[in-house]
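Thread: "does anyone have the structure for this chain?"

Original post by V.I.:
We have the sequence but no experimental structure in hand. Need at least a predicted one for the grant figures.
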Amino acid sequence: MKKQNQWTLLIKYIFVIPACAFTLLPLLWVIVRSIEPDTGIESYSFMPRAITFDNYSAAWNYPRVIDENVTLGTMLLNSLFVAITVTIVSILFDSMAGYALARKNFFGKKVLFWLALSTLMIPFYAIAIPMYIIVIRMGMYDSLASLIIPFTASGFGVFMFRQAFLSIPLDFEQAARVDGANDFFIYWRIMLPMVKPTIATMIVFKVLWSWGQFFWPLLVIQDYSKMPINLGLAMFRGHNITRWGLLCAGMVVATIPILIVFLMCQKWYVEGLSGGLKG
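Reply from O.Q.:
Generated one for you, tokens below.
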């Protein structure tokens, strides 16, 4: 039996390792292009002709061509601020809504839950124009608030937290009520610490989604000092020539925060995702 398990594991590795290598090829290509001299000519080689880090300093200061007070670091900080704010606020709102839907009985509870789920079936591009009009009328156009406020809650987050709270036995909540704890104390001090895997999962999802936005910032942001890094990377692609070295260096810089977040949360990521869907 043990020998059979070893053969099964070997077969899995035979398929998994090439698949992982194939998945990492685009990242390898980007890293290679970022550390070789920029010639403006696209190359498909995975070996650098020469090694230099001039692309990183050039990419960092390239936005100064348009605005001398803006660097790629400015746009990186904008993306960090938006991603952190959206993640914290949306996790707070989603978890509160999930707790109410999982533990409270009130009129229209199921209807509200299904309405929250229905938002997952609506493509973002179908609501982009109404959101754009609302942002303009609220005076948030060309501000970081337009990248934050419309995304402070999500149906997916509500669903994940509801499923996580449903998996917690009622005994913990009942014991806290016997001791005189109110609803907020139970939610904040007892229930929320018990769904850390779900919180870690949602952190990864929220940061990835906020960080990867391009279409929405393209609609609502015009000021270069308020642009997220994704819009900044588009500056390296011109009508006649693309600065591949600078573009790839910028992409490497933009990828580092995402890798850090995932490495910090990977311990609970799979557990939280499987637990939320299973519950």
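V.I.: this helps a lot. The chain has a mean pLDDT of 86.
O.Q.: and The radius of gyration is 23 Å.
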